[in-house]
Amino acid sequence: MINQIEQSLSELFSSGKGMYGCSLYDLETKESFAFQENESFYAASIIKVPIMAAVFAHAYEGKCRLKDKIQIHEEDFVPGDGILKHLSAGMEWTIYNLLVLMIIESDNTATNVLIDLVGIENIASHMTRWGFRTSQLNHKLQISPDRKSGEFNVITPNEINLSF
Predict the structure, then answer these.
(1) How many C-alpha atoms does 117 have within 13 Å on its Cβ side?
(2) Which residues make Cβ contacts (< 8 Å) with residue 130, sequence separation at least 6?
(3) What per-residue confidence (pLDDT) applies to 151?
(4) Rounded to an integer, what distance in angstroms lies between the CA atom of residue 127 and that of residue 107?
(5) CB atoms within 10 A of CB 43
(6) What CA–CA distance (Å, rounded) separates 28 from 33?
(7) What span, in angstroms and rounded, lies between the C-alpha atoms of 92 and 39?
(8) Are 78 and 109 in contact (CB under 8 A)?
(9) Hey, which bits of 39-123 come out as E strands?
(10) Would you place residue 98 in the very low, low, confident or very high pLDDT band (cuts 50, 70, 90)?
(11) What is the mean pLDDT of the chain?
């Protein structure tokens, strides 16, 4: 499958404006394709994948249960993607439901609540154990005061692809 689209991907990446990176691996055929796979990129919402894995690890370690509920407060709401910001403060959501909203709806409020649950330092520790060397979670999403100059959430396509 990947070999069939490799030429098209290469042409697309080399003809486009901007910088692109890609790392694909087919678990069935063992085919792979990579383009600038070790370059650092602004993470945007792809950082939610290792956050999700860290929440599952947190639950596996017995520090929470996916059925535990977390109340969403007014100060938790952030702009950007998601539906929670359009709902009432004070509602309780299970950790599992927050994970679903984070991944399926790309909900930034759910993401930040889950980051608070596990802790940035703990998420970073998990990422290091999983082999992330360049990819980093440095701050919550959509909260400017948390950002230090030049410190962004970053990923490399290869680390995101091969670490899980």
Answers:
(1) 30
(2) 50, 53, 163, 164
(3) 84
(4) 21
(5) 21
(6) 14
(7) 39
(8) yes
(9) 41-42, 69-71, 92-94
(10) very high
(11) 93
